[in-house]
Amino acid sequence: MLGQKLKELREANGLVQRQVAAELEVDTAYISKVENEEKHLSKVHLNKIARVLKTKEAELHTLWLSDKILALIKDEPTAKESLKIAIQKL
After folding, report:
1. Residue 44 carries which DSSP code?
2. Could you tell me if 1 and 68 are in contact, meaning their C-beta atoms sit under 8 angstroms apart?
């Protein structure tokens, strides 16, 4: 989810992965892996990448957290029921 959104925003801003990587002070391979959903973006990069891609950090944070939750529960047999309970407690 987040990786695809980052790619869309990067392309909409006319940036290449190398430029985003330079702003975050990471290598281009890291940005590529994040965009291809092979690696999770570090939370410390959310603010800076939101600024670089001219978008709201809250939107990216929501997708970042959704990806983390999904990675944690996707293979669990009681994932849906557990998520329902968690939502009720929120």
Report:
1. G
2. no
Domain spans, the chain: 2-89
Specify the DSSP class assigned to residue 15: -
Alpha helices in 1-90 (DSSP H): 2-12, 17-24, 28-35, 46-52, 57-73, 79-89
pLDDT per position in the chain (90 positions), as tens? 999 999 999 999 999 999 999 999 999 999 999 999 999 999 999 999 999 999 999 999 999 999 999 999 999 999 999 999 999 999
User: Which amino acid appears at position 68 of this protein?
Assistant: K
**Residue 83 is encoded by which pair of tokens?**
């998520």
What pLDDT was estimated at residue 55?
Answer: 97
CATH number of 2-89: 1.10.260.40
